[in-house]
Each structure stands twice: as C-alpha cells, then as structure tokens.
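Quick one from the shared queue. A colleague (R.T.) flagged Lipoprotein as missing a structural entry in our internal table.

Convert sequence to structure tokens.
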Amino acid sequence: MLAGLLLSGCATVPEGPPRLLPAGADAPGELEPLLAVRAEAGGLVIRLKSRGCLRKEDLRFFVERGGAPSVAFARRRLETCKSGGADEAEVRFGWDELGLAGARAVRVMNPFNTP
C-alpha cells in the first residue's frame, strides 16, 4: 500500500521544466525581442541585448493566466551606462517568482529565437 501511495504522488509532479510556447501572430509588436529564452527546472532564463550594466531589477514581467499562462518582459528603464562591456545579458526568474510553479507550458509573448 505504501508503494502505491508513493507512486501515485509521483504521477502528479510535472516532469522537468514547462514547455515554452511562442506567442504567435497575436503577440504585441511593441514588446522587446529577446535573444533567447530557456526553461530550466529552477526558472525561466531570458537573454537580451545589454550595454553591460543590465540588472534584474531593471526588468518587469507581466503574467496572464488562462489556458497556458503567458508571460511578457519589459525594461523599467533604459541602460545609460557606457561600460563597453558585454553586448548581451542573461537574467533568471524563478517559477515561484513568476507565479508559474507547476505550469506544464508557458507562452512567452516577447519575440525570441529558439536555442
């Protein structure tokens, strides 16, 4: 009986990170394009253009639920640094932070290239 309970509990846990879905034709054109998006067990990783001083706090996210949840990313402020550093940055958002823990699929509304 204990083995049955353990097995039934495992059947409800999602396997791996959610599947990423592109926005499709209904995506708002004004959203910033992302260089890449990656779903990992711990969260969603986005890569975008940067002058070398982009911080996670410089970004906002918006989540819409219903069916497969949708998430969009936007900058709070433009980068004004003149660092001459990297021309791109990766930022990670946890699934709990996004309010998407346990989701099986997530639609990313920003245009992005698949890895």
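The beta strands are 19-22, 36-40, 43-49, 59-64, 70-75, 88-94, 105-108.
The longest helix spans residues 2-10.
Added to the table.
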